Amino acid sequence: MAVDFAVELKNISKTFGSAAANKNISLSLKQGEILALLGENGSGKTTLMNILAGIYQPDSGSIYVNGEKAAITSPKDAKRLGIGMVHQHFKLVDVFSAADNVWLGRENRSYGFRERYKAEGSGKKGIGKFGAAASVIFHAAGFFVSERLLKKSRYREIEEISRSFGFEMDPKKKVYHMAVSEKQTLEIVKVLYYGAKVIILDEPTAVLTVQETEKLFGVLRQMRAEGHSIIIITHKLHEVMAVSDRVAVLRKGEYVGTVETASTNEQKLTELMVGHKITLNIERPFVEKKKPLLEIRGLTIENDEGACAIDDVSFYIRGGEILGVAGIAGCGQKELCEAIAGLRKIKSGEIVHKGENIVGLAPKKIIEKGIAMSFIPEDRLGMGLAPSLSITDNMLLKNYRDDNRFSPFVNRRRGRADARTIISELDIVTPSTETPVRLLSGGNVQKVLVGREIETGPNVIVTAYPVRGLDIHSSYAIYDILNRQKVSGVGILFVGEDLDVMLALCDKIMVLCHGRVMGIVHAAKTTKEELGLMMTGALNLVRSDEKRTGIAKDTNIKEQPS
Q1: How many Å from the N-terminal Cα to the C-terminal Cα in the chain?
Q2: Closest of 209, 207, 202 to residue 88, by C-alpha
Q3: Taking the CA of residue 184 as centre, how many other CA atoms within 13 Å lie in the half-sphere pointing to its CB?
Q4: How deeply is 351 buried, as exposed, middle or buried, from its count of CB atoms within 10 A (0-12, 13-18, 19+)?
Q5: What pLDDT digit, counting tens, does each position of 543-560 carry?
Q6: In the sheet where 68-70 sits, what is the strand order?
Q7: In this predicted structure, what is the pLDDT of residue 221?
Q8: What integer pLDDT is reported at residue 331 of this predicted model?
Q9: Residue range(s) in the chain whose domain bears CATH number 3.40.50.300
């Protein structure tokens, strides 16, 4: 008799100290379906899935796999049961190849000798007659021969899996040479290689472009058609509506319910997550024009491979103004932010802050001048924050010397007070200010990073993808904070992905295509279609003779701003 459910979770509870992450949760995953798991940051989604993947053990409750009660006490147990998880933060070894990462952990304690002997076949038979010394030599030679055979076998298997799902994967490529989408692909290939039939994806599209996301969704639909059961954690409601069959909602660690995707909409899902009706409206307060705080003049920057990432870019940001930066991922946004923050060398051009060229200054000196870098990179725990440190200590990273320049001791009271402030203002879900950042959900990690930058009291904020991984409620809280900074006279560079948000939030929008400016326009006088044309290079307002009322003065930077 066929089993209806691939996985059933019954009365699952999990606490960390005094904080309850999951409270008596029961939900099910049908055979051959895509189930979206939805909830605000800190609602317990990732914790629940980590329990299913064997990373955590529940305090109480039961798990059933294919109708039978299962004991999942480790990731090894989960793999044995056909459950694989693709984590939000990639679990890859950068210096290893794709094939080595797939194979990692599969070798036994004899360091793969058993598998190597199998690959050698009959070649190792009869070596004993040559004596002990010769036996050692033959074994050593066999080691290297079998290693090559194993690698070829691994490559073939990985290539076959990749081709069957339409992936483009080079098994020999090192992870540190991979783009984010390639790393995502590798993580999926890893779980497929182990034969997973239940696949959990935690925020799989957080760092993917629209095109990469659609490609991933095509793969997920194919997996579903071939009998895989999939759980996807995401905060992007339009993605939930596009790819899922059902939606399960958690709120503050409790199970709210499951609805059919076809019978709901984004507004209803938002209300289920939050628990009440909310108005999703982004304000754009008017602020009197002020002199530019930051001017970029003829900036040219190279990427890590030595190719041109930013090509002769010029613009300025006034106090009390939000300048949006739109463009297809990889068009130089990352390099531009890093250059302004002093994290990347520039090839030519000037970065002028209040009349002073800051090119060549150390990041610390730039911070002291009031430029805050609220840059949330693809590896936000690796670049933005220290994951093993507490929220308090992460708050202190930028200002621990300010109060005690001549003392060997750090005054943690200030950091603790700042931590309490951002926890309250941004509604960060955490047991305490002393909780290590690595134990927080991805969305709450982002809140800590954004909150820390704002607490430094900057006059210029450079913020890249500040709401990536945040639920809708939290995203609007961030928009509100940025607007409050704008009203106080701060100049803001806002790199974003959602054009609708940028049109509502920003005063002006600069569009990049292959590192060049296609135009700078007033957000209130342009359209999403026009921005899209500029993003693909089909419309270049910088070179166009056509007069458009929506073009901002920045497009013609030769004219000095007043």
Answers
A1: 77
A2: 202
A3: 23
A4: buried
A5: 876 667 788 878 766 544
A6: 19-30, 5-16, 60-65, 68-70
A7: 92
A8: 87
A9: 5-95+174-274, 293-370+459-562
pLDDT number for residue 161: 83
Q: Per residue, what are the HEC states of 165-187?
A: CCCCCCCCCEHHHCCHHHHHHHH
pTM above 0.90? no
Within 10 Å of residue 1's Cβ, how many Cβ atoms? 4
CATH of domain 5-95+174-274: 3.40.50.300
Which DSSP string do the residues of 101-161 spell out, in sequence order? HHHTTTS-TTTTHHHHHHHHGGGGTTGGGG-HHHHHHHHHHHHHHHHHHHHHHHHHHHHHH
Name the residue with tokens 């606490």.
Answer: 15
Phi and psi dihedrals of 386, rounded to 5? -95, 105
Write out the two tokens for 464: 């890249």
Tokens matching residue 265: 């909409």
Say whether 313 sits in a helix, a strand or coil: strand
The answer to whether 188 and 219 have CB atoms below 8 angstroms apart is: yes
E strand intervals along 237-276: 246-251, 254-260
Choose among 496, 526, 515, 506: nearest CA to 210: 496
Tokens 């010029």 found at: 314
Tell me the C-alpha distance between 204 and 188, whole Å.
Answer: 10
CA distance 63 to 7: 7
| Helix or strand run (H / E) with residue 398 | none
- Cα distance between residue 99 and residue 92, in whole Å: 11
Mean pLDDT check: name the lowest of 122-136, 216-230, 240-254, 384-398. 122-136
Torsional sign, CA 529, 535, 539, 545: positive
Digit-coded pLDDT (tens) for 353-411: 988 899 988 888 888 777 765 565 556 666 778 888 999 998 888 766 555 555 566 77
CATH architecture of the domain 293-370+459-562 equals 3-Layer(aba) Sandwich (3.40)
> DSSP string of 219-236?
HHHHHHHTT-EEEEE-S-
Cα separation, 144 vs 158, whole angstroms? 21
pLDDT, one tens digit per residue, over 314-364 is 999 999 999 999 988 778 998 999 899 888 999 999 999 988 899 988 888
| Tokens 């009959």, residue located | 122
Rounded Cα gap, residues 103 and 107, in angstroms: 7
